[in-house]
UniProtKB/TrEMBL annotation:
It comes from the Eukaryota. The keyword Membrane does not apply. Belongs to the short-chain dehydrogenases/reductases (SDR) family. Keywords: NADP, Oxidoreductase. InterPro entries: CBR1-like, NAD(P)-bd_dom_sf, SDR_fam. Gene3D superfamilies: NAD(P)-binding Rossmann-like Domain (3.40.50.720). It comes from Euphydryas editha. It is an enzyme of class 1 (oxidoreductase). The keyword Protein biosynthesis does not apply. This is carbonyl reductase (NADPH).
Amino acid sequence: MADKVAVVTGSNKGLGFGIVKELCKRGVGSVYLTARDSQRGLQAVEKIKQEGLCPEFHQLDVSDRRSVKKFAEYLKQKHNGLDILINNAAITTEHPYKITYEEAKRVIEINYKSYFNIQDYLFPILNKNARVINVSSSFGHLANLKNTYWIERLTKLDIKTEDVDAFVDWFLTSVKNETLKKENFGTETFLAYRVSKIAACALTRVQNRNIDRNIAINSLHPGFIKTDMTRDSGELTVEEASKTPVYLALDADQSLKGKYIWYDKTEMDWEDLNADLDCYNKEEFKKFMGRYMSSD
């Protein structure tokens, strides 16, 4: 364990912060807390060090190819590789119902397209038997999508990156042209976030099929967590929610690949269109929506 190198993107606060702490507690030798803002990242590292743990910091903007390349070169030079990669960096829209094209484009850029920067520069330095966890959401489950054409295209056995890109482009074009239809999703809330996470889960399958070196890549719904993103609503604390991503990083069988994992460590069928998605119509979710609306 002490010789392992782990990276958690977007980890200066929230779930990412909790994952860094948990990895350090489990004895992973080098754990990198990363953040776009260096000052916030360094402050987060110092906060964890006060608990007797020793994470390291490196600036990382996942949407900036130069930033990802620079970080990959640093890791290659210092450690000659990487064992654990947890893609946690994500944003959502400011309002659950209102959405602009520029805002939707930014959400897609961070939550989906940044995965290609990671894939291009960090995947090549993954060690044999490395583990990659793409942090998704219950909003990333395919049951959030109602459009038959896209459901069929995203569930093809031979799905390719081009299929996922086309889905994302269809959404962005619909937003830009103001032709987006609620019936394609069955809801009007957080559509850019939903699309970005559905796309990330679909891409996980493509990545897992194309990767070698016995590397395991899975996507994860970490639960409905009390963080800034949820306006401190939720059913899990950050500490509780950090357990499953760390389980996937350290304890799960290496044969677990290309799956969609629920926050309780169970495998869920991503293609089950009748899946019971846990945060819908619950009191905490209603509270969450109320806080979002009141902050508008």
